[in-house]
């Protein structure tokens, strides 16, 4: 039996919520009592997710391309109109971008990655925070970063740049929004076999997981989307009521150990 729901009465908006980490978070947040608005551009996957939920009245879909600020503003407005407030923003939408060398980088692709992974996050924080401030909601804003936000060589150049920028954005938003009782944090996972990562590396889920297990620091555990969702649940809940400005690594220690040194 599950313990007392940790998000009872709360409303969460999850970008990139139709698949991968976002889908896992949507299911887990629902399980813990939240109303959830999925923001995505993957219509079929979003509708399939909603159809699979037993309490369809507590979850809905709002199509939104996070590169377009007007669409982001409309998604936040839809959330407040439908459920009365917004208590949690999980700004999770993102892309890996092309796997190219810096010598062959297409700057249009670079700009698109930054538009989704940085501009999109900035837009969602801006409009969700406005709604929280107006309602005097002591909300929680969570952004999906990456191990690539801490080290080089863990992802494509544009992706790595965008995730470093996201950490800076989180810190400045934390500084400003703390005065309103709003906390802002990031989660930085190691490699997870999501549709996004599988497509980027052109590998099956099992192959991605095998590669991550081989290169990861913590052995005996396969990182899944649900593990990242559980970290988001902690940051969304009142259990983290005085946690803000943090980049929570869900990486098995990957970013804090030297991979060139071994005592063996």
From TrEMBL:
<protein>
    <submittedName>
        <fullName>Oxidoreductase</fullName>
        <ecNumber>1.1.1.-</ecNumber>
    </submittedName>
</protein>
<keyword id="KW-0560">Oxidoreductase</keyword>
<dbReference type="InterPro" id="IPR002347">
    <property type="entry name" value="SDR_fam"/>
</dbReference>
<comment type="similarity">
    <text>Belongs to the short-chain dehydrogenases/reductases (SDR) family.</text>
</comment>
<dbReference type="GO" id="GO:0016616">
    <property type="term" value="F:oxidoreductase activity, acting on the CH-OH group of donors, NAD or NADP as acceptor"/>
</dbReference>
<dbReference type="InterPro" id="IPR036291">
    <property type="entry name" value="NAD(P)-bd_dom_sf"/>
</dbReference>
<dbReference type="Pfam" id="PF13561">
    <property type="entry name" value="adh_short_C2"/>
</dbReference>
């Amino acid at each position: 039996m599950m313990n007392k729901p940790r998000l009872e009465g709360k409303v969460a908006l999850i970008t990139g919520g139709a698949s991968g980490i976002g889908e896992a978070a949507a299911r887990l947040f629902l399980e813990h009592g939240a109303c959830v608005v999925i923001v995505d551009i993957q219509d079929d996957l979003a509708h399939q997710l909603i159809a699979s939920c037993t309490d369809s009245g507590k979850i809905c879909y709002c199509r939104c391309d996070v590169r377009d600020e007007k669409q982001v503003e409309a998604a936040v407005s839809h959330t407040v109109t439908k459920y009365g407030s917004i208590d949690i923003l999980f700004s999770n939408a993102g892309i890996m971008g092309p796997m190219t060398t810096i010598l062959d980088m297409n700057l249009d692709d670079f700009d698109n990655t930054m538009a989704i992974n940085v501009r999109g996050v900035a837009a969602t924080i801006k409009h969700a925070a406005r709604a929280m401030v107006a309602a005097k909601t002591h909300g929680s804003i969570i952004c999906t970063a990456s191990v690539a936000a801490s080290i080089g060589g863990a992802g494509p150049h544009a992706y790595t740049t965008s995730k470093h920028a996201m950490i800076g954005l989180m810190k400045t938003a934390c500084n400003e929004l703390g005065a309103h009782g709003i906390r802002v944090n990031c989660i930085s996972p190691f490699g997870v076999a999501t549709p996004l990562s599988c497509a980027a590396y052109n590998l099956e889920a099992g192959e991605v997981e095998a590669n991550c297990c081989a290169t990861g620091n913590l052995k005996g555990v396969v990182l899944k989307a649900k593990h990242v969702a559980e970290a988001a649940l902690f940051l969304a809940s009142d259990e983290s009521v005085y946690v803000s400005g943090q980049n929570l690594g869900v990486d098995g220690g990957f970013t804090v150990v030297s991979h060139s040194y071994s005592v063996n």
